[in-house]
């Protein structure tokens, strides 16, 4: 694909003997949908992730901005490690969640703003999101509101996402999650490979590049990643190839 931001090349085949693989969820494994609850998760996805995790000796983790319970529901057949809420909560890592004070009050404020403005409010296990896809003209106002909310609730910070602005626990990050994961088995000593599509993924893509591995940017846009694939369908095909599978058919 042609892109003004470099990273033209497709990634090499995964090296299952030495790679540790970290995968974003929305926009990477599944296509972006008009609403968070409207995504379509291909039936084979969990089975492909399980097979690939086995080839990687368990060194495969999902690293997402989604709430952990949602990830567990959408990928119910996959039992490997998962990091949710932009690094603030995890499964299989024995890490306590980052739960700042004021979550309920913060959520009530964001829900009220959404109701007033006709935005989609997304309650999250450790934060909240405001989706302005239906009212894109309100992006600046929504971001300004979120910035003011983060001042009143200092345990939280603003996280921009595709057509959305979120408040997540302060200090949570996907690159921080990668740093922690790669210090422990079965990830330690392997080459970090991260794939993701959004600004929420850029620090993790840069982290993989800076730590002996590489990033795969999904879709268009400026990126720290060396490699690029066009969309989640190409990501799924790349994963399937690594397990010797046939062409992805949904
Ligand atoms: O880190 P990710 O797995 O990419 O999650 C980031 C956010 O994804 C979701 O929102 C995005 O996807 C929605 C469904 O396609 C889309 O409607 C929305 O516009 C996108 O921003 C999710 O709702 C958020 O909680 C995640 O943080």
UniProtKB/TrEMBL annotation:
Pathway the protein acts in: Glycan biosynthesis; trehalose biosynthesis
InterPro entries xref list: HAD-like_sf (IPR036412), HAD-SF_hydro_IIB (IPR006379), HAD_sf (IPR023214), OTSB-like (IPR044651), Trehalose_PPase (IPR003337)
Keyword annotations of the record: Hydrolase, Magnesium, Metal-binding
BP GO annotations: trehalose biosynthetic process
Cofactor(s) recorded in Swiss-Prot or TrEMBL: Mg(2+)
Broadest EC class assigned to this enzyme: hydrolase
Pfam families associated with the record: Trehalose_PPase (PF02358)
Reaction equation(s) it catalyzes: alpha,alpha-trehalose 6-phosphate + H2O = alpha,alpha-trehalose + phosphate
NCBIfam families: HAD-SF-IIB (TIGR01484), T6PP (TIGR00685)
Family classification: Belongs to the trehalose phosphatase family.
Function: Removes the phosphate from trehalose 6-phosphate to produce free trehalose.
The name this protein goes by in its record: Trehalose 6-phosphate phosphatase
Organism: Rhodobacter maris
């Amino acid at each position: 694909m042609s892109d003004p931001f470099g990273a033209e090349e497709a990634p090499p085949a995964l090296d299952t003997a030495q790679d540790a693989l970290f995968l974003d969820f929305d926009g990477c494994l599944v296509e972006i949908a008009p609403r968070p609850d409207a995504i379509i998760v291909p039936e084979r996805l969990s089975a492909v992730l399980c097979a690939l995790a086995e080839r990687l000796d368990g060194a495969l983790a999902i690293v997402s901005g989604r709430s952990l319970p949602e990830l567990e529901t959408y990928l119910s057949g996959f039992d490997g490690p998962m990091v949710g809420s932009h690094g603030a909560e995890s499964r299989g890592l024995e890490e306590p969640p980052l739960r700042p004070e004021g979550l309920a009050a913060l959520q009530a404020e964001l829900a009220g703003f959404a109701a007033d403005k006709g935005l989609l409010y997304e309650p999250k296990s450790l934060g909240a999101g405001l989706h302005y896809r239906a009212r894109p003209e309100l992006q600046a106002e929504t971001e300004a509101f979120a910035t003011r909310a983060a001042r009143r609730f200092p345990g939280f910070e603003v996280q921009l996402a595709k057509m959305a602005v979120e408040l997540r626990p302060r200090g949570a990050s996907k690159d921080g999650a990668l740093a922690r994961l790669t210090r422990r088995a079965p990830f330690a000593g392997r080459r970090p490979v991260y794939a993701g599509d959004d600004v929420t993924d850029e620090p993790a893509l840069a982290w993989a590049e800076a730590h002996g591995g590489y990033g795969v940017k999904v879709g268009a846009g400026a990126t720290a990643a060396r490699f690029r694939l066009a969309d989640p369908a190409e990501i799924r095909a790349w994963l399937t190839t690594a397990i010797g599978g046939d062409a992805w058919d949904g």
